[in-house]
Design goal:
- The structure is a single chain.
- This protein is of the alpha/beta class and 138 residues long.
- The chain has a single domain (2-133), classed as Flavodoxin domain (Rossmann fold).
- It contains five helices and six strands.
- Strand 4, helix 4 and strand 5 (111-112) form a beta-alpha-beta unit.
- The radius of gyration is 15 Å and the shape is globular.
- The two termini are 16 Å apart.
- The model has no long low-confidence stretch (mean pLDDT 94).
C-alpha cells in the first residue's frame, strides 16, 4: 500500500478462482502442490490490460522460496516487453529467495530494477529511501 501511496500508483488485486484454505497447514499443502506442479490458477481479478502502464511494481508473498501462484498467473497472462518491472515481497525471514529470478525469467524482455523484501511493517521513510536508491522518478 505504501508504494502505491508514494508513487500515486494503481493497486491491482489478483484473485484466483478458488480461494486458499483458511487453515494454515491445509493452505501450505495446497500451495506446495501448486508450486511443485507449476500450476497457475485462473484469475477472476487481475486480468485487465497493462498496456497503459510503463512501470509495474510486482508484489508477492514469499511462498516456499518463490512467487505465489496467482502472481505467476499474472506474469504469464501479460506481455511485459519494454516495461520496467520493480519487484517487492513480504516474507517471514526468507527474503527474496528465488522471487527476483523467477520474475526475471517470466519478464525477460523487460527492464527490472532492484526490489525490496519486507519482513514485517515497512515505514514510509524506508519505502522513500528505496525508491530514491533505485532511481524511481516521482
Amino acid at each position: 500500500m505504501e508504494i502505491a501511496i508514494q508513487t500515486d500508483g494503481t493497486i491491482r488485486e489478483l484473485i484466483p478462482d478458488k480461494n486458499y484454505s483458511f487453515d494454515y497447514n491445509t493452505a501450505a499443502k495446497e500451495v506446495r502442490n501448486q508450486i511443485s506442479r507449476g500450476f497457475c490458477p485462473k484469475l477472476i481479478s487481475g486480468n485487465e490490460s497493462i498496456d497503459d502502464y510503463q512501470t509495474i511494481f510486482i508484489g508477492t508473498p514469499n511462498w516456499f522460496k518463490t512467487l505465489a501462484p496467482p502472481v505467476m498467473s499474472f506474469l504469464r497472462k501479460h506481455d511485459f516487453t519494454g516495461k520496467t518491472i520493480i519487484p517487492f515481497c513480504t516474507h517471514g525471514g526468507g527474503g527474496f529467495c528465488q522471487i527476483e529470478n523467477n520474475i526475471a525469467i517470466e519478464c525477460s524482455k523487460s527492464i527490472m530494477l532492484p526490489g525490496i523484501a519486507v519482513d514485517g511493517i515497512v515505514s514510509p521513510e524506508e519505502v522513500s529511501k528505496w525508491l530514491e536508491t533505485i532511481g524511481y522518478q516521482f
